[in-house]
Fold each of these.
Amino acid sequence: KIYIDLLEKCNLKIFEKKNIYILQDNQKNNYRYIKEKINLNEKFCLFHLDEKMNQLNKNEIDAVDNLINDIFKKKKIILTTGIFDFKYTNYFKKKYKSIDFNNLNNSQLNIKNEIIIIEKLPVDLLAYFLKDSDINISFHAGPIVNISAALNKKIVDIMPKHKFNELGRWIPIISNYKRYSIENINKILNDI
């Protein structure tokens, strides 16, 4: 909102305050292929893991893992990562079946009812997962928050409480957005 106000003070008229994202047709077949490979034929929660989690301590990571498992009791969950490994990459890869997008064509997958991690998804392909999900959760990952807002999806953002004011200016103005501090992530289940 702060940037909209600044632009308007400079006499620049803002005609649209909603985020815009156009799904790229060149990723549609890749998305269908992956959905088939991982037996994704129901609504799901997308939970994005990335380097913003590096600031968390071991107890907080355990709480995130507990949340993932609690969500899975209610609905299918797909974990995704960005293109970079992060401090806790191996922690999650030891717990869940992990598929690197770059090796997906060579993978013999038979995933029925389990939590999986799809690593290193290109943003334009990730957008198809965001579009079909019921809810998208991240640690304030820009693409997750902004593309989800453009696609009218429910967004849950997790961050340390002391970052609320700092990151508040990056929240899409028109969105179905909710923010939780890492200390209160167990309350996210009420939104699932």
Amino acid sequence: LDPTVIDPDTHKTDFVGTYNKTLAICHALKEREDAGEPIAAVVLDGIDILLKDCEMVMRYQDLKIDETKRLSQMWDWQNRNTKFYAVVYMAKRMKCRRFFTTHYKDKKQLVGTELITTEKIPIWQDQFPGKMAQRIFLERKDLKDSVVFEAKIGKAKGALYLEGQKYVVAEVKSTTKEAHWYGLHDFYREVER
């Protein structure tokens, strides 16, 4: 379900409406699960965008300031964090599998006079120290006869021996465009023992 709400007058994202819809979807899924309806998984796709949406709600609704204005009080950021964690923790409390996806940002370092990218890290990583039980990095690999999507386990709380393991999640044959989905069944069998 896409929670994005577009303002009909400005044709721009309505951040308050988007956040409220995101929260409502999470509430509805949690209620359905609590009522006994089986839910296979919940995916919060773009958790870094959710964090930015929460910042915009804080600015427009809570502080009534423009998006470009510098915040004068550091504790104002708590408004953003409270909104963000309300959604994240609601999803984390569900019994089904939960996936939180994010984009990457370049971590840079000055080498001589040149700024180089040293690695790619999840955008929200600094905001979430120790709050996730697993961290899985998905990478697309273009091979000679196929495209492979490979998951590397970066963190597996409770199953540390899995850290560093790689799993082929999906593969698409270049010539036939035939797709094969493998998923992370082997990983979850180990983690959920």
